[in-house]
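Is zinc ion placement plausible here? Inputs below.
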Amino acid sequence: MGKTYSLETDLMPIMRGDVALPNPEPINRDIGAEILHYNQMRSGCSVLLPGETSKKWNVSFFLDSGQSGQLYGSGLVAWTKWDNEKRTYAATGLRFAICQHTKVDDPGANHSRGWHPGRCSKCGLDMTIDSGD
Ligand SMILES: [Zn+2]
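Reply from A.M.:
I modeled the complex. Tokens:
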């Protein structure tokens, strides 16, 4: 069994803003296009940005997950802010990751047949993808 991330113990403290957002990174693509890829969204959350002392309220989290729904402990947090130039609210946000995963292949990987077993070399998360038929 590899490492797994749990919503309750790993992600909820981040989504309540009880711990600062881990490893935040800017989103360089259109945020609307980014979030369309997600099927796991939690709205009405809070976030504590690193270096800030008060939580930002009413943000939405989009959670990275694997083929069988297992959580990767990473994703994207988004909120709206007033855009003075466009005179409207616009979405903004950050990526985050409890672990910035580095996938290494397991023995037996057969990429030409769509079998990509592997895990993160840092935390041990199972990142296997089976795209074969
Ligand atoms: Zn990892």
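Short version: The beta strands are 16-20, 25-26, 41-48, 56-65, 71-83, 88-97, 103-105, 115-116, 118-120, 129-130.
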